[in-house]
Design a protein that fits this description.
This protein is an all-beta fold and 321 residues long. The chain contains 1 helix and 27 strands.
């Protein structure tokens, strides 16, 4: 595989992206006053295609994030089954993480500081087109500026029928943030006030007030977190949200700001790895099968010929005392 490297010539910050594997940005190194912060965690063999596509970097989850229960759903009266030999599955038989994280994307523009690529179901995932209610595309622009990695998303419906969709990213953030840091000194923050009630990683359709063990509003120490949860209940009346990692011992932080279109946040602590996943989603897990639930799932429908834009920014910085 041949990665793309984008660099900010002023700061020296850089990112590496794999167009052949879901346009995955598997490395982001932010420079702050001459210090390199290695922000994103990836397996050493990931860039060679020797690891699961969802195991490293920033997998892009589209047109549905996380799971579809039993790899089955119904839309407009039509039943769809997503077979394991044609779509990406977890170990328990659920379809997982969409259709584009494990396939090549088309790079349509590239300069020193940015790269843009597209994935359209009818072009780049033809063998999966019949498993979705219609054609859909996603375009992503990654850009490095200063100590910030920005992703701009454009989602469009080129077809003649309305199409459901959801988007998520699955970033693996390295912790601690430097050799001088430690897991015990890493604080995780998010403004979420609720979480979805889960049964084997699948929401049952209701939310509850966030329990103390998962409450990140005032920060939680990473070494005390063991989670794989879908948080919700973000503050109302704001156009964007923020979650962050603060390494107090190293005096460094990584923040992730994102458009309020991303109403849910999956927080996941992978076993036996020095990383944490803070995953913004525009809809909850299995949203397409929860349409009859009273709670708002976030699932959206894109009319024919229309498009929508959104964004996420990952920024490294120093803790201001």
């Amino acid at each position: 595989m041949t990665p793309i490297k984008i660099t900010d010539p002023v700061s020296g910050s850089s990112a590496h992206i794999l167009p052949e594997l879901g346009f995955n940005c598997y490395q982001f190194r932010a420079m702050i006053d001459g210090q390199c912060i290695d922000v994103i965690d990836s397996h050493p063999e990931f860039q060679h295609g020797d690891q699961r596509p969802s195991s490293s970097g920033i997998p892009i989850l589209f047109p549905f994030p996380n799971r579809i229960a039993d790899a089955h759903y119904k839309w407009d009266g039509v039943s769809y089954d997503l077979p394991a030999d044609k779509t990406y599955h977890d170990q328990t038989g659920n379809a997982i993480h969409g259709f584009c994280l494990d396939l090549p994307w088309r790079v349509i523009a590239q300069e020193e500081t940015y790269a843009i690529a597209q994935f359209q179901l009818s072009i780049d995932g033809k063998h999966r087109l019949k498993y979705w209610p219609g054609d859909i595309f996603i375009e992503v622009k990654y850009e490095v500026k200063g100590a910030t990695l920005r992703a701009d998303f454009r989602i469009g419906n080129p077809g003649t029928t309305s199409v459901p969709w959801g988007l998520g990213t699955h970033p693996y953030f390295k912790v601690p943030l430097s050799e001088q840091g430690s897991l015990k000194s890493c604080l995780i923050e998010s403004p979420a006030t609720e979480e979805w009630v889960l049964d084997q990683c699948l929401p049952i359709g209701v939310k509850k007030s966030i329990p103390q063990a998962h409450d990140l509003r005032e920060g939680a120490w990473l070494d005390q977190l063991n989670v794989d949860d879908v948080l919700s209940g973000m503050p109302e009346g704001t156009e964007q949200y923020e979650c962050l990692i603060m390494d107090q011992q190293a005096g460094l932080l990584v923040s992730q700001d994102y458009d309020s279109l991303f109403s849910e946040l999956v927080v996941f602590t992978p076993a036996q790895r020095n990383c944490i996943c803070l995953e913004p989603y525009t809809c909850v897990t299995n949203a397409i099968n929860l349409m009859s639930a009273d709670a708002e799932t976030g699932l959206r429908v894109l009319p024919p010929g229309s498009e929508i834009k959104t964004w996420i920014e990952i920024r490294a910085g120093k803790v201001i005392v």
